[in-house]
Amino acid sequence: MEIQLWKDILNPYELAVEELLVKFNHLIKEYQDRGMYSPMEQVCGRVKSISSILDKAQKKNIEVDKIEEQLDDIAGIRIICQFVEDIEKVTELIRNRSDMQVVTEKDYINHMKSSGYRSYHMIIEVPVFFSDRKENMRVEVQIRTIAMDFWASLDHQMKYKKDVE
């Protein structure tokens, strides 16, 4: 696939991530402005690199022209919380919003992976508006505590970047 085509494919995902970062950071600020405890400590986001998308598609035997249909994590948001109890509050906040739709949920908090990985994953659809159309973009939202995020980052570095068992 040529670079311009990739730019056309990834641009709506980048816009979806930007919109979600604004929405979630606005919520954090709202809690702070009201002098209330925010269940969200911080929010970050990304769009997978082309090479990462192609690697994952190859591992899952997904044809290049089916990537957008079959990969739900091209765009991702990570919401970091202080406490496990905050994760449920954040999932409820997301479920109750009218500007995004929950597609699927996976609870790796109460059903930890065999590797020890813990996080709460939601695939959501968020509308992205263009001058001539609206596209509902799928974004993976990972919600975890600071400690879970630290563990997941180390685990990812060891397994995927360094090939360490």
Could you walk me through the main structural features you see in this protein, from its secondary elements to its overall organization?
The model has no long low-confidence stretch (mean pLDDT 91). Helix content is 44%, strand content 25%. The chain has a five-stranded mixed beta sheet with strand order 1-2-5-4-3. The chain contains five helices and five strands. A hairpin with a 4-residue loop joins strand 4 and strand 5 (134-145). The chain has 165 residues and is of the alpha+beta class.
Give the helices and strands as they follow along the chain.
HEHHEHEEEH
Largest sheet, described in full?
A: 5 strands, mixed
The mean pLDDT is: 91
Measured by DSSP, the beta-strand proportion falls in: 25-35%
What portion of residues is helical? 40-55%
* Lateral arrangement of strands in the main beta sheet: 1-2-5-4-3
Shape: globular
Radius of gyration based on Cα positions: 17 Å
Span of the ends, CA to CA: 34 Å
